[in-house]
Design goal:
The structure is a single chain. The termini are far apart. The strands form 4 sheets. Strands 10, 12, 13, 15, 16 and 17 form a 6-stranded mixed beta sheet that branches. The protein is mainly β. The protein contains 1 helix and 17 strands. It is rod-shaped.
Length: 202
């Protein structure tokens, strides 16, 4: 039989630029009668095929895969019609983390933190928290709190929430959660901040 090898530079990809492809390293050799043909497939879809020598590499794009696990198979046939194959599994993750925050009070009490709940099949790469008076802000500023992902729910300290608050009812708490292949979710709850004590006269 031919001697076949197939490896992938990544076993997890997404549709996000920079994470959306994997380099396959392939080979197929035969000591006695040489290689007649090869076929590289995912499921029933042929990605690459040809006669003679097996290409050394192939760029596997996310567009060739379905979400979840995909089995990639390289089959090689020699001139004597002996054949062998190797397979690998590459996962496509198109789903952003699911994130939730408890409802902040309309007027936030600055001593209180909150908890972030998240669900993600694969690993969380980064979590940032910041506040501003800009709705739906997705640009992480210098000074934003970077929280290490541990078990959900994840505590967000009061200092992270009141990092850049204004004395107004139009503050926004921004939360960015990104998984290891670049899928991102945001939350932007609005709340007020009033640190001034009431004044009175007798």
């Amino acid at each position: 039989k031919p001697v076949v090898s197939l490896e992938s530079s990544k076993t997890l990809i997404s549709t996000v630029d920079g994470y959306n492809s994997s380099k396959l390293t392939m080979s197929g050799t035969d000591e006695y009668s040489n290689v007649k043909s090869y076929t590289l497939k995912v499921g029933e879809t042929v990605l690459s095929s040809g006669n003679g020598e097996v290409p050394a590499t192939y760029t596997l794009m996310h567009s060739s895969l379905v979400e979840g696990d995909n089995t990639i198979v390289l089959e090689v046939i020699d001139i004597a019609e002996n054949k062998d194959s190797k397979s690998i599994v590459v996962e496509l993750d198109k789903t952003a983390p699911v994130i939730e925050l408890p409802q902040l009070n309309t007027w936030y009490i600055a001593e209180y933190g909150t908890n972030l709940s998240y669900t993600e099949k694969n690993a969380i790469a980064e979590i940032y928290v910041w506040s501003s008076t800009t709705a739906n802000d997705t640009t992480v500023p210098t000074g934003a709190t970077n929280i290490t992902a541990t078990a959900s729910p994840l505590a967000i300290a009061a200092d992270a929430i009141k990092w850049n608050l204004s004395e107004t009812d139009k503050n926004y708490l921004h939360v960015k959660v990104m998984d290891e292949v670049g899928n991102v979710s945001y939350l932007h709850p609005q709340f007020g901040y009033d640190s001034m004590k009431p004044t009175w006269t007798i």
